[in-house]
Amino acid sequence: MQVGIDMGLASGAPATLDIEELLATRLLVQGNSGSGKSHLLRRLLEQSAQWVQQVIIDPEGDFVTLSDRFGHVVVDGERTEAELAGIANRIRQHRVSCVLTLEGLDLEDQMRAAAAFLNGMFDADREYWYPVLVVVDEAQMFAPSIGGDVSEDARKMSLGAMTNLMCRGRKRGLAGVIATQRLAKLAKNVAAEASNFLMGRTFLDIDMARAADLLGMDRRQAEMFRDLKRGNFVALGPALSRRPLPIQIGAVETSARSSSPKLMPLPDAPQDVEDLIFTPDPEEFQRPLVRRAPPAPRPTTDILAELSRSTPAASAVPAEARASQVEVSAEEREERLAGVLAEILDDPTSAFRTDSVLYQDFLVRLRMRRVPGPPIALPEFRRRVAISRSGVDVTTAATNAWATALSLSSGVTDDLQGVFLMLAKAAVCGEPCPSDARIARAYGTHSARRARRLLGYFEEQGIIVVHADFSGKRIVAFPDMDCQTAPGDANAPDTGYQPLAAE
């Protein structure tokens, strides 16, 4: 059954959206804050409520008002992951529309709750694979393009759930509708699965260019996205239009609990205004002060000092006696860990092996040397490897510039930290810019083209600025660190790597 819902006006005529086609091809909505994304989603939900089951992932609690008019069940996200997965499964069984409100949770808890709910819907039995319109507002929070201030475990969990929704959800009846403020912050593998697009007002060049690419428009036409009025979008896709079509979104029946700010006159100041402000309420002193301090990262100087120590010599104690020597001091254990890590990184082929493979080798060597206690976790192992490969010395590691570099490196993914820290070390020390071959080795590849793409990616994120001197040699500058590398030949060979005879 073909059902077309009215989204508004397009050149004076009704703009219709084919719901059945949308269920098969998914939708991406993009626009800066204030462009009318939430209004568009509300129009879509209201018009399609009678035709298809709906599930809304609502980080701000704006869509709970749909329950009063259309009977959506409101699910509070402040539950355990097991509870949310069970509710999501029963939502599919009984075909009930719902709003998962995540208001009041911090970002990491929002990501975990949304992931648990989406996974619960995704894992429903085949007999309950009825069509569901799954709307995710502020999708860049749940499918970020790069790591942020949340744990890697939460990011992977949320990104995996969003990838399942957009890439594999169609066969299970799940049709993703995702809305984001910035395309550059949304994971590309999630955005790429949408075949329908509604692009609203945006101002940043990178977002305008990407929106133009998705709509098949010339990049010179990208400037039009700056001029779009609030509530106006450009539509493209099999469920909307075969050619880019400007649409003005129509009115809605319900409203969000929050609204756009309006100018209001200030009230007359009372006579005792200073007493009102500076006299504390007695209840203020009874409220507990809750502070959440993140664990302090381990200083780089400590890691470098451990890596610089030599590998402890093998003990001459018999195996039976050595097996009984379980208790060792913390310093000795750290020495053994650092020695095993140094052995692995001294192998010239280690640069071209993935961190997970190196980590497995690391665990095996720990068991062979009978190092007691739990080994370091994979994230800590990756961090040590990245710092070691950067070549930073203890003196440089103690500088403020290097501390800034470490802070910036937390904004890139684990696989790119080694490359980023190597470039940052060259900038802090004023060394020549590493060549493409050297960057490629730090990334674990032989491809110079991929190395250049990495530099382009860092530049797109605004972390570095790449330019050349008068002789054409490359310079990489770090604006946040106020330093840059010396000019370096991009095509120079990687003198630090000596290929084996078998190669």
UniProtKB/TrEMBL annotation:
<dbReference type="InterPro" id="IPR027417">
    <property type="entry name" value="P-loop_NTPase"/>
</dbReference>
<dbReference type="InterPro" id="IPR002789">
    <property type="entry name" value="HerA_central"/>
</dbReference>
<dbReference type="InterPro" id="IPR003593">
    <property type="entry name" value="AAA+_ATPase"/>
</dbReference>
<protein>
    <recommendedName>
        <fullName>AAA+ ATPase domain-containing protein</fullName>
    </recommendedName>
</protein>
<feature type="compositionally biased region" description="Low complexity">
    <location>
        <begin position="312"/>
        <end position="324"/>
    </location>
</feature>
<dbReference type="Pfam" id="PF01935">
    <property type="entry name" value="DUF87"/>
</dbReference>
<feature type="domain" description="AAA+ ATPase">
    <location>
        <begin position="23"/>
        <end position="309"/>
    </location>
</feature>
<dbReference type="InterPro" id="IPR008571">
    <property type="entry name" value="HerA-like"/>
</dbReference>
<dbReference type="InterPro" id="IPR014588">
    <property type="entry name" value="ATPase_Atu1862_pred"/>
</dbReference>
<feature type="region of interest" description="Disordered">
    <location>
        <begin position="309"/>
        <end position="330"/>
    </location>
</feature>
